[in-house]
UniProtKB/TrEMBL annotation:
It comes from Streptomyces tabacisoli. Residues 27-47 have a biased composition (Low complexity). CDD domains: PBP2_TMBP_like. SUPFAM superfamilies: Periplasmic binding protein-like II. Residues 26-47 are annotated as: Disordered. This is Sugar ABC transporter substrate-binding protein. Keywords: Cell membrane, Lipoprotein, Membrane, Palmitate, Signal.
Length: 450
């Protein structure tokens, strides 16, 4: 596997672009009117600073309510917005272009470089306390820090894990696979049981596939030699693509959009025996399928080389202070409390079952205590998550326009699942489709896939 990527020149790539022009490339249609309800922080008559916070995360209102109860000198005005791809990122970009972005915004890891390039997420290196830096898992902070300069603060980080139907494993005498070779053998054994059951659904989107490639040693982007170097079809990615293509060709897996009704039906009807996802999905599974209580367990993700275990992630959010914030110090105080205070996590979890893995490890006992273990047969999933989080391979860099890259990938995967092309050719098409967006930003680029 490649070592930690040098982020030298990353900062230059991020700061080389002026705010004007770059925003137009990420904000979508110019006909979308900027939202005017946001206001930058204000100073009250009694010395109270009011800041604004936008987020799509469940439990954010409860977090803000708890903060406002316990902090007299800072008050937070919260606005629930759509998910990023559901319109939230468009709203944030348009607001920043109009000069009225919120003080604090929620940004998922893949979008951090883009918002840094656009100048929306400000450099907050000097605002983050040494105490907070020490508390954050290095692999989490590393995804928001470039050449020593940080642009957002991680809330959670989500190592990929393997969910499996223990009842069906017991019924058929299957062992939990620890390597990808064993997993392929399991897929064939599932087919031999007859019926429509398959080992899993291969999700035709970027979310999980990026984590699988990350685990295998892929480096889709790096910024060495002062350029954005793109390798979306590098050797580790081709290895992963060929592996899953073989399972698809042998009809051992379903190939389904993870957000589709078909995928829900496959899981709900017991047609898949395993699922691959980030730690957060344990809580989502509980909420979506309460009738399957006690049937599932969670295990480490299979490895390519058990002697050199590695993982990627699937999911996770961060908090950025925008360029329009008039009170960045107050915004950072709110962010630090959000990501590191037990009271903040308790407030978030009060909104419903959640299994998010906190980027601050001191909060793990809070998550563990709040999680109902009965759904997973009494299993202490947080101990497993803690073990797996330390396997996350350092050095991964997201690209400048991951939303666009993800759309190209999903379109290509959909065609491949229908028999037009392969996963490997889809990744080559994704690389080719990514380049115009990068060049439109004025970035120096190279392509390195062979």
């Amino acid at each position: 596997m490649p070592g930690r990527q040098s982020r030298r020149s990353m900062l230059a790539a991020i700061t080389a672009l002026p705010l004007t022009g770059a925003l137009g490339a990420c904000s979508g249609s110019d006909s979308a009117s900027p939202q005017s309800s946001s206001k930058t922080g204000t100073k009250g008559s009694r010395g109270t600073t009011t800041i604004t916070f936008w987020s799509a995360l469940r439990g954010s209102q409860e977090v803000v309510d708890q903060f406002n109860k316990t902090h007299d000198h800072i008050q937070v005005r919260f606005e629930q917005i759509p998910s990023g791809n559901g319109g939230g990122y468009l709203k944030l970009s348009n607001a920043a272009r109009a000069g009225n972005a919120p003080d604090v915004a929620t940004i998922e890891y893949p979008q951090v470089p883009g918002y840094a390039i656009d100048g929306v997420a400000r450099d907050i290196t000097s605002l983050i306390s040494d105490d907070l830096r020490k508390k954050l898992l290095p692999q989490a902070l590393g995804q928001t820090t470039f050449e020593g300069r940080t642009f957002s603060v991680p809330l959670d980080i989500e190592p990929t894990v393997l969910h499996y139907r223990k009842d069906l494993f017991d019924k058929y005498g299957f062992d939990v696979p620890t390597t990808w070779d064993e997993y392929a053998d399991l897929a064939r054994a599932v087919r031999r049981t007859g019926g429509k059951r398959k080992v899993c659904t291969f999700p035709i989107d970027m979310g999980l596939f990026s984590g699988l490639c990350w685990q295998a040693g892929a480096q889709w982007f790096d910024t060495s030699k002062g350029a954005w170097n793109v390798s979306l079809a590098d050797a580790p990615t081709r290895r992963v693509a060929k592996y899953w293509q073989r399972l698809i060709d042998e009809d051992l897996v379903y190939a389904t959009n993870p957000n589709s009704r078909a995928n829900d039906a496959q899981i709900g009807n017991g047609l898949v025996l395993t699922r691959h996802s980030g730690a957060w999905d344990a809580g989502a599974q509980m909420n979506a399928r309460p009738e399957q209580k006690g049937l599932w367990r969670i295990a480490p993700q299979p490895q390519w080389d058990p002697d050199r275990p590695a993982l990627g992630t699937n999911g996770g959010s961060t908090f950025a202070i925008t360029k329009d914030s008039a009170h960045p110090e107050a915004a950072m105080e709110f962010i630090e409390w959000q990501v590191s205070s037990p009271d903040a996590l308790k407030a978030r979890l009060s909104s419903g079952a959640s299994s998010q893995y906190p980027a601050v490890s001191e909060l793990i006992p809070v998550g563990r205590a709040a999680f109902d273990r009965k759904y997973y047969g009494g299993q202490d999933i947080y101990t497993l998550f803690e073990q797996e989080a330390h396997k996350i391979r350092d050095g991964w860099v997201w690209g400048p326009r991951m939303t666009a890259t993800a759309q190209v990938m999903q379109d290509a995967f959909t065609r491949a699942a229908a028999g037009s092309g392969t996963l490997e050719s889809s990744m080559r098409a994704t690389e080719d489709g990514t380049m115009p967006d990068l060049k439109a930003l004025g970035l120096k680029t190279t392509q390195h896939s062979t």
